[in-house]
Amino acid sequence: MLQNSNISRTSIEAGGQNQESHNQNSQIQDDHSSAGPREPSFLCVCLNPTIQKTLVFSKIHAGEVNRTAQWRIDVAGKGIIPTRILTQLGERAVHLTQLGGPNRDWFLSMCAEDKIPIEWVESDAPIRFCTTLIEESEGHATELVEESLPVAPGTSEAIIARFSELVQKTSAVLLSGTVATGIVPGTMARLAEIASKAGARLYLDIKKQDLLECLEFHPLCVKPNLEELAQTLGIPYDEVREETTARRLVAETGRKFYERFGTYLVVTRGAKSTLYWDGRQLCEQPVNPVNVRNPIGSGDAFGAGLARILERGGSIHDAVKEGTRLGGLNAAQLKPGSIFP
Predict the structure, then answer these.
(1) According to the model, what pLDDT value does residue 38 have?
(2) N or C: which end of the chain has fewer CB within 10 A?
(3) Mean pLDDT for the chain overall
(4) pTM (2 decimals)?
(5) What pLDDT shows up at residue 13?
(6) Quick one: pLDDT at residue 190?
Protein backbone atom coordinates (compact mmCIF):
# COMPACT_ATOMS: atom_id res chain seq x y z
CA MET A 1 0.00 0.00 0.00
CA LEU A 2 1.22 3.48 -0.87
CA GLN A 3 -0.06 6.88 0.04
CA ASN A 4 0.07 9.43 -2.77
CA SER A 5 3.60 10.53 -3.56
CA ASN A 6 5.31 12.69 -6.14
CA ILE A 7 7.25 10.15 -8.16
CA SER A 8 8.30 11.14 -11.65
CA ARG A 9 7.17 8.96 -14.52
CA THR A 10 10.75 8.34 -15.67
CA SER A 11 11.74 6.80 -12.34
CA ILE A 12 8.83 4.38 -11.98
CA GLU A 13 9.61 0.71 -12.50
CA ALA A 14 7.23 -2.26 -12.55
CA GLY A 15 8.86 -5.61 -11.91
CA GLY A 16 12.26 -4.02 -12.57
CA GLN A 17 11.10 -2.49 -15.86
CA ASN A 18 11.42 1.26 -16.53
CA GLN A 19 8.17 2.76 -17.78
CA GLU A 20 9.95 4.87 -20.39
CA SER A 21 10.67 1.65 -22.24
CA HIS A 22 7.61 -0.33 -21.18
CA ASN A 23 6.55 -0.92 -24.76
CA GLN A 24 9.91 -2.34 -25.79
CA ASN A 25 10.81 -4.61 -22.84
CA SER A 26 7.91 -6.83 -21.82
CA GLN A 27 8.88 -9.52 -19.29
CA ILE A 28 6.96 -12.05 -21.36
CA GLN A 29 9.42 -14.12 -23.37
CA ASP A 30 8.89 -15.35 -26.91
CA ASP A 31 7.46 -18.82 -26.37
CA HIS A 32 5.94 -19.22 -29.83
CA SER A 33 9.32 -19.50 -31.53
CA SER A 34 10.81 -22.04 -29.14
CA ALA A 35 10.84 -25.76 -29.70
CA GLY A 36 9.84 -28.46 -27.26
CA PRO A 37 8.11 -28.00 -23.90
CA ARG A 38 7.67 -24.38 -22.89
CA GLU A 39 6.97 -22.54 -19.71
CA PRO A 40 3.61 -20.74 -19.76
CA SER A 41 3.44 -16.98 -19.95
CA PHE A 42 0.30 -14.98 -19.31
CA LEU A 43 -1.08 -11.74 -20.73
CA CYS A 44 -3.85 -10.47 -18.41
CA VAL A 45 -6.08 -7.80 -19.93
CA CYS A 46 -8.68 -5.62 -18.23
CA LEU A 47 -9.90 -2.35 -19.77
CA ASN A 48 -11.27 -0.80 -16.59
CA PRO A 49 -8.39 0.02 -14.18
CA THR A 50 -9.15 0.46 -10.49
CA ILE A 51 -7.59 1.86 -7.34
CA GLN A 52 -9.12 -0.02 -4.42
CA LYS A 53 -9.69 1.50 -0.99
CA THR A 54 -10.46 -0.95 1.82
CA LEU A 55 -11.95 0.33 5.09
CA VAL A 56 -12.40 -1.95 8.11
CA PHE A 57 -14.99 -1.25 10.83
CA SER A 58 -16.16 -3.26 13.79
CA LYS A 59 -19.68 -2.12 12.99
CA ILE A 60 -21.10 0.43 10.55
CA HIS A 61 -23.81 2.71 11.88
CA ALA A 62 -26.01 3.87 9.02
CA GLY A 63 -26.60 7.61 8.89
CA GLU A 64 -23.76 8.30 11.36
CA VAL A 65 -20.10 9.30 11.15
CA ASN A 66 -18.02 6.10 11.09
CA ARG A 67 -14.28 6.38 11.76
CA THR A 68 -11.56 3.80 11.33
CA ALA A 69 -7.79 3.70 11.63
CA GLN A 70 -7.64 0.40 9.71
CA TRP A 71 -7.61 1.05 5.99
CA ARG A 72 -5.45 0.48 2.93
CA ILE A 73 -5.17 1.51 -0.72
CA ASP A 74 -4.08 -0.90 -3.46
CA VAL A 75 -4.08 -1.35 -7.20
CA ALA A 76 -6.79 -3.86 -7.96
CA GLY A 77 -9.28 -4.84 -10.63
CA LYS A 78 -9.85 -7.98 -12.65
CA GLY A 79 -6.62 -7.69 -14.65
CA ILE A 80 -4.25 -6.59 -11.91
CA ILE A 81 -5.34 -9.31 -9.48
CA PRO A 82 -4.65 -12.34 -11.74
CA THR A 83 -1.30 -10.79 -12.67
CA ARG A 84 -0.37 -10.28 -9.01
CA ILE A 85 -1.45 -13.82 -8.07
CA LEU A 86 0.42 -15.42 -10.96
CA THR A 87 3.62 -13.51 -10.23
CA GLN A 88 3.35 -14.41 -6.54
CA LEU A 89 3.30 -18.03 -7.70
CA GLY A 90 6.45 -17.52 -9.76
CA GLU A 91 4.75 -17.43 -13.17
CA ARG A 92 5.55 -14.98 -15.94
CA ALA A 93 2.64 -12.60 -16.35
CA VAL A 94 2.02 -9.04 -17.48
CA HIS A 95 -1.03 -6.81 -17.26
CA LEU A 96 -2.27 -4.67 -20.16
CA THR A 97 -4.64 -1.76 -19.61
CA GLN A 98 -5.16 1.95 -20.31
CA LEU A 99 -4.22 4.66 -17.80
CA GLY A 100 -4.57 8.42 -17.47
CA GLY A 101 -5.29 11.32 -15.18
CA PRO A 102 -3.53 12.66 -12.09
CA ASN A 103 -3.29 9.24 -10.35
CA ARG A 104 -1.60 7.43 -13.22
CA ASP A 105 1.91 7.62 -11.79
CA TRP A 106 0.61 6.71 -8.34
CA PHE A 107 -1.06 3.64 -9.87
CA LEU A 108 2.23 2.67 -11.55
CA SER A 109 4.22 3.17 -8.37
CA MET A 110 1.89 0.81 -6.51
CA CYS A 111 2.33 -1.74 -9.32
CA ALA A 112 6.09 -1.39 -8.90
CA GLU A 113 5.81 -1.93 -5.14
CA ASP A 114 3.84 -5.14 -5.77
CA LYS A 115 6.25 -6.19 -8.55
CA ILE A 116 3.41 -6.31 -11.09
CA PRO A 117 4.69 -6.01 -14.67
CA ILE A 118 2.38 -3.65 -16.52
CA GLU A 119 1.96 -2.44 -20.10
CA TRP A 120 -0.32 0.52 -20.74
CA VAL A 121 -1.54 3.05 -23.25
CA GLU A 122 -2.63 6.60 -22.57
CA SER A 123 -6.38 7.07 -21.99
CA ASP A 124 -6.55 10.71 -20.78
CA ALA A 125 -9.18 9.45 -18.29
CA PRO A 126 -8.79 9.52 -14.49
CA ILE A 127 -8.53 6.08 -12.89
CA ARG A 128 -11.67 5.19 -10.95
CA PHE A 129 -11.77 4.34 -7.26
CA CYS A 130 -13.71 1.43 -5.80
CA THR A 131 -14.25 1.11 -2.05
CA THR A 132 -14.72 -1.96 0.14
CA LEU A 133 -16.43 -1.53 3.52
CA ILE A 134 -15.69 -4.46 5.83
CA GLU A 135 -17.92 -4.82 8.86
CA GLU A 136 -16.21 -7.38 11.10
CA SER A 137 -19.01 -7.87 13.63
CA GLU A 138 -21.42 -8.92 10.88
CA GLY A 139 -18.93 -10.60 8.58
CA HIS A 140 -20.04 -8.33 5.75
CA ALA A 141 -18.05 -6.82 2.89
CA THR A 142 -19.86 -4.08 0.95
CA GLU A 143 -18.42 -3.02 -2.39
CA LEU A 144 -18.94 0.54 -3.69
CA VAL A 145 -18.13 0.64 -7.40
CA GLU A 146 -17.49 3.81 -9.38
CA GLU A 147 -18.28 3.77 -13.07
CA SER A 148 -15.39 4.88 -15.24
CA LEU A 149 -15.11 8.23 -16.99
CA PRO A 150 -14.85 8.15 -20.81
CA VAL A 151 -11.49 7.32 -22.32
CA ALA A 152 -10.07 9.45 -25.11
CA PRO A 153 -10.83 8.63 -28.76
CA GLY A 154 -8.25 6.23 -30.13
CA THR A 155 -7.71 4.39 -26.84
CA SER A 156 -9.27 1.16 -28.14
CA GLU A 157 -7.07 1.22 -31.24
CA ALA A 158 -3.98 1.80 -29.11
CA ILE A 159 -4.89 -1.15 -26.87
CA ILE A 160 -5.38 -3.41 -29.89
CA ALA A 161 -2.03 -2.36 -31.35
CA ARG A 162 -0.15 -2.97 -28.11
CA PHE A 163 -1.97 -6.29 -27.56
CA SER A 164 -1.05 -7.43 -31.08
CA GLU A 165 2.64 -7.00 -30.18
CA LEU A 166 2.47 -8.61 -26.75
CA VAL A 167 0.40 -11.64 -27.72
CA GLN A 168 3.17 -12.85 -30.03
CA LYS A 169 5.26 -13.49 -26.91
CA THR A 170 2.71 -15.24 -24.72
CA SER A 171 1.07 -18.64 -24.45
CA ALA A 172 -2.13 -17.66 -22.62
CA VAL A 173 -4.42 -14.62 -22.63
CA LEU A 174 -6.81 -13.80 -19.78
CA LEU A 175 -9.55 -11.32 -20.71
CA SER A 176 -11.31 -10.05 -17.59
CA GLY A 177 -13.94 -7.64 -16.39
CA THR A 178 -15.99 -4.86 -17.90
CA VAL A 179 -14.66 -2.17 -20.21
CA ALA A 180 -14.41 1.54 -19.48
CA THR A 181 -16.80 4.05 -21.00
CA GLY A 182 -15.57 5.01 -24.44
CA ILE A 183 -13.95 1.66 -25.27
CA VAL A 184 -15.30 0.71 -28.69
CA PRO A 185 -17.91 -2.10 -28.54
CA GLY A 186 -16.45 -5.35 -29.79
CA THR A 187 -12.92 -4.59 -28.59
CA MET A 188 -12.80 -7.69 -26.39
CA ALA A 189 -13.85 -9.86 -29.33
CA ARG A 190 -11.17 -8.23 -31.45
CA LEU A 191 -8.55 -9.13 -28.83
CA ALA A 192 -9.87 -12.69 -28.67
CA GLU A 193 -9.59 -12.99 -32.44
CA ILE A 194 -6.01 -11.73 -32.44
CA ALA A 195 -5.09 -14.14 -29.63
CA SER A 196 -6.65 -17.04 -31.53
CA LYS A 197 -4.74 -16.24 -34.70
CA ALA A 198 -1.50 -15.94 -32.69
CA GLY A 199 -2.02 -19.40 -31.19
CA ALA A 200 -2.43 -18.19 -27.60
CA ARG A 201 -4.93 -20.08 -25.46
CA LEU A 202 -7.79 -17.93 -24.29
CA TYR A 203 -9.38 -17.67 -20.83
CA LEU A 204 -12.42 -15.48 -20.23
CA ASP A 205 -13.73 -13.87 -17.05
CA ILE A 206 -16.15 -11.53 -18.79
CA LYS A 207 -19.90 -11.42 -19.26
CA LYS A 208 -22.86 -10.43 -21.41
CA GLN A 209 -22.20 -9.47 -25.04
CA ASP A 210 -18.42 -9.48 -24.64
CA LEU A 211 -18.52 -13.13 -23.56
CA LEU A 212 -20.94 -14.19 -26.29
CA GLU A 213 -18.89 -12.48 -29.00
CA CYS A 214 -15.65 -14.11 -27.82
CA LEU A 215 -16.96 -17.68 -27.82
CA GLU A 216 -16.47 -18.10 -31.58
CA PHE A 217 -12.72 -17.88 -30.99
CA HIS A 218 -12.82 -21.08 -28.93
CA PRO A 219 -11.60 -20.07 -25.46
CA LEU A 220 -10.24 -22.97 -23.45
CA CYS A 221 -12.23 -21.93 -20.39
CA VAL A 222 -14.78 -19.34 -19.33
CA LYS A 223 -15.33 -18.55 -15.64
CA PRO A 224 -18.34 -16.39 -14.81
CA ASN A 225 -20.02 -16.47 -11.45
CA LEU A 226 -23.63 -17.63 -11.41
CA GLU A 227 -25.09 -14.13 -11.54
CA GLU A 228 -22.86 -13.18 -14.48
CA LEU A 229 -23.86 -16.34 -16.35
CA ALA A 230 -27.53 -15.52 -15.83
CA GLN A 231 -26.95 -11.95 -17.04
CA THR A 232 -25.14 -13.23 -20.12
CA LEU A 233 -28.00 -15.54 -21.02
CA GLY A 234 -30.67 -12.93 -20.28
CA ILE A 235 -32.16 -14.88 -17.36
CA PRO A 236 -33.26 -13.16 -14.11
CA TYR A 237 -30.78 -14.17 -11.41
CA ASP A 238 -33.51 -14.97 -8.90
CA GLU A 239 -34.77 -17.68 -11.24
CA VAL A 240 -31.54 -19.68 -11.09
CA ARG A 241 -30.26 -19.19 -7.54
CA GLU A 242 -31.99 -22.31 -6.23
CA GLU A 243 -29.73 -25.39 -6.29
CA THR A 244 -31.69 -27.50 -8.78
CA THR A 245 -32.10 -24.70 -11.31
CA ALA A 246 -28.46 -23.61 -10.91
CA ARG A 247 -27.25 -27.12 -11.66
CA ARG A 248 -29.54 -27.43 -14.66
CA LEU A 249 -28.38 -24.10 -16.07
CA VAL A 250 -24.68 -24.91 -15.71
CA ALA A 251 -25.11 -28.41 -17.12
CA GLU A 252 -27.10 -27.25 -20.16
CA THR A 253 -24.86 -24.28 -20.89
CA GLY A 254 -21.68 -26.20 -20.17
CA ARG A 255 -22.65 -28.98 -22.57
CA LYS A 256 -23.48 -26.43 -25.28
CA PHE A 257 -20.22 -24.49 -24.83
CA TYR A 258 -18.11 -27.65 -24.90
CA GLU A 259 -19.82 -29.21 -27.92
CA ARG A 260 -19.88 -26.01 -30.00
CA PHE A 261 -16.64 -24.32 -28.97
CA GLY A 262 -14.54 -26.89 -27.08
CA THR A 263 -14.80 -24.60 -24.04
CA TYR A 264 -14.94 -25.56 -20.37
CA LEU A 265 -17.56 -23.67 -18.35
CA VAL A 266 -16.69 -23.10 -14.68
CA VAL A 267 -19.23 -21.24 -12.54
CA THR A 268 -18.31 -19.96 -9.09
CA ARG A 269 -20.96 -19.23 -6.45
CA GLY A 270 -19.14 -17.53 -3.59
CA ALA A 271 -19.14 -19.75 -0.52
CA LYS A 272 -21.25 -22.39 -2.31
CA SER A 273 -19.65 -25.20 -4.29
CA THR A 274 -18.33 -24.45 -7.77
CA LEU A 275 -20.17 -26.11 -10.65
CA TYR A 276 -18.43 -26.98 -13.91
CA TRP A 277 -18.79 -29.07 -17.04
CA ASP A 278 -15.79 -31.35 -17.67
CA GLY A 279 -16.72 -32.28 -21.24
CA ARG A 280 -18.88 -35.23 -20.23
CA GLN A 281 -20.82 -34.36 -17.10
CA LEU A 282 -21.62 -31.75 -14.49
CA CYS A 283 -19.05 -31.72 -11.69
CA GLU A 284 -18.90 -30.02 -8.32
CA GLN A 285 -16.02 -28.71 -6.23
CA PRO A 286 -16.76 -27.80 -2.60
CA VAL A 287 -15.41 -24.57 -1.15
CA ASN A 288 -13.45 -25.16 2.04
CA PRO A 289 -14.40 -22.87 4.95
CA VAL A 290 -11.84 -20.13 5.66
CA ASN A 291 -11.62 -17.26 8.08
CA VAL A 292 -12.71 -14.59 5.60
CA ARG A 293 -11.15 -11.15 6.02
CA ASN A 294 -11.85 -9.72 2.56
CA PRO A 295 -13.53 -11.70 -0.24
CA ILE A 296 -12.82 -9.08 -2.91
CA GLY A 297 -10.68 -10.59 -5.66
CA SER A 298 -11.31 -14.22 -4.74
CA GLY A 299 -12.98 -14.92 -8.08
CA ASP A 300 -10.03 -13.38 -9.90
CA ALA A 301 -7.59 -15.45 -7.82
CA PHE A 302 -9.66 -18.51 -8.74
CA GLY A 303 -9.33 -17.64 -12.43
CA ALA A 304 -5.57 -17.28 -12.13
CA GLY A 305 -5.27 -20.73 -10.57
CA LEU A 306 -7.54 -22.23 -13.18
CA ALA A 307 -5.47 -20.90 -16.08
CA ARG A 308 -2.16 -21.76 -14.42
CA ILE A 309 -2.96 -25.46 -14.00
CA LEU A 310 -4.48 -25.86 -17.45
CA GLU A 311 -1.46 -24.15 -19.02
CA ARG A 312 0.80 -26.57 -17.21
CA GLY A 313 -1.06 -29.56 -18.63
CA GLY A 314 -3.32 -30.32 -15.67
CA SER A 315 -6.89 -31.56 -15.92
CA ILE A 316 -9.93 -29.34 -15.54
CA HIS A 317 -10.55 -31.09 -12.20
CA ASP A 318 -7.09 -30.18 -10.91
CA ALA A 319 -7.50 -26.65 -12.25
CA VAL A 320 -10.78 -26.10 -10.41
CA LYS A 321 -9.23 -27.43 -7.19
CA GLU A 322 -6.31 -25.01 -7.51
CA GLY A 323 -8.65 -22.12 -8.28
CA THR A 324 -10.63 -22.97 -5.16
CA ARG A 325 -7.46 -23.07 -3.07
CA LEU A 326 -6.25 -19.69 -4.30
CA GLY A 327 -9.68 -18.12 -3.88
CA GLY A 328 -9.67 -19.22 -0.26
CA LEU A 329 -6.15 -17.91 0.33
CA ASN A 330 -7.17 -14.55 -1.09
CA ALA A 331 -10.29 -14.33 1.09
CA ALA A 332 -8.13 -14.81 4.18
CA GLN A 333 -6.06 -11.68 3.40
CA LEU A 334 -7.10 -8.07 3.92
CA LYS A 335 -5.27 -6.98 0.77
CA PRO A 336 -7.54 -7.63 -2.23
CA GLY A 337 -6.07 -10.01 -4.78
CA SER A 338 -3.21 -11.48 -2.78
CA ILE A 339 -2.42 -14.95 -1.46
CA PHE A 340 0.27 -13.76 0.97
CA PRO A 341 0.02 -11.35 3.94
Answers:
(1) 60
(2) C
(3) 90
(4) 0.88
(5) 32
(6) 98
